[in-house]
Design a protein that fits this description.
Layout: E1 2-7, E2 10-15, H1 26-41, E3 47-52, E4 56-58, H2 63-71, H3 81-91, E5 96-100, E6 103-105, H4 107-110, E7 117-121, E8 125-127, H5 130-133, H6 141-149, H7 151-160, E9 164-165, H8 166-172, E10 177-179, H9 184-196, H10 200-211, H11 215-232, H12 236-248
Parallel strand pairs: 2-3, 3-5, 4-6, 5-7, 6-8, 7-10
Antiparallel strand pairs: 1-2, 8-9
Helix pairs in contact: 1-3, 6-7, 6-11
GO molecular function: delta(3)-delta(2)-enoyl-CoA isomerase activity
Keywords: Isomerase, Peroxisome
Subcellular location: Peroxisome
């Protein structure tokens, strides 16, 4: 479910559920949350590099789980779940680098709001499918994305449920560098190792000074999003969208 490797003070966390396009079920949310917490606490880890196995970075929340959350009173949530992962991302004190190797939907896109550097393969694509699913945005994306890429770019990304390619993501400022597929991990790792060669305490101080001013706004955005999400999950539009998706499969 996760592959974790360490080299030169860089911990690479690879989402490894390729048969499901690395979609997050409750178990993967829990495993990734734990992996980020452990990396944060490990004095030998300076930088985390997050990527995916196979042809996807992450297809977001597993829609089977999403439908079960909305309709099954016996649905068993994970120990941490989606909100636990976002807690871990928001609190992660060290540089976080994302290498978007393929498709990124939902949290596979909104995670970039928490990335300190993001690299993207030229053949990768990103989408925030919230309006096509009849739900609200997530992971403080309603705050972080306008800050990162500007109001209008964020409005298109969050409202349209349309795919954007690597060059568009680069133009928007959603990612920092675009690389050929065969060079993506090498490029991301090379930059990660530059950072990892520096003082960890200094890296953490720089990140803290950059993120601290937005902490309250991120928390408030998450609260607003979660409120709308709870209202819309299971609504007529959401139920129709999930039924149509399952029938398509």
């Amino acid at each position: 479910m996760l592959d974790i490797t360490d080299e030169n003070r860089v911990r690479t966390i690879t989402l490894n559920r390729p048969e499901a396009l690395n979609a997050f079920n409750e178990a993967l949310y829990d495993a990734t949350t734990i992996a980020l917490r452990e990396a944060a606490a490990d004095p030998e880890v300076a930088v985390v590099l997050l990527t995916g196995a196979g042809r996807a970075f992450s297809a977001g929340t597993d829609l089977g789980d999403l439908q079960a959350m909305a309709t099954d009173p016996d649905f068993v949530a994970g120990e941490f779940g989606f909100n636990g992962l976002v807690d871990a991302l928001a609190a992660f004190p060290k540089p976080l680098i994302c290498a978007v190797n393929g498709l990124g939907l939902g949290i596979g896109t909104t995670v970039l709001g928490f990335a300190d550097l993001a690299f993207m393969s030229t053949d990768a694509r990103l989408k925030c499918p919230f309006t096509s699913l009849g739900v609200a945005p997530e992971a403080a994306s309603s705050f972080l994305l306008p800050q990162l890429i500007g109001r209008q770019n964020a409005a298109w990304l969050l409202m349209s449920s349309e795919w954007i390619g690597a060059e568009e993501a680069l133009r928007m400022g959603l990612v920092w560098k675009v690389c050929p597929p065969q060079e993506l991990l090498a490029q991301a790792r090379a930059h990660a190792e530059v950072l990892a060669s520096r003082s960890i305490a200094s890296l953490m101080a720089v990140k803290a000074t950059m993120t601290a001013p937005a902490e309250q706004a991120v928390a408030e955005a998450r609260a607003r999003e979660n409120g709308f999400f709870a209202t819309l999950l299971g609504s007529a539009d959401n139920a129709a969208a999930l039924t149509a998706f399952n029938q398509k499969d």
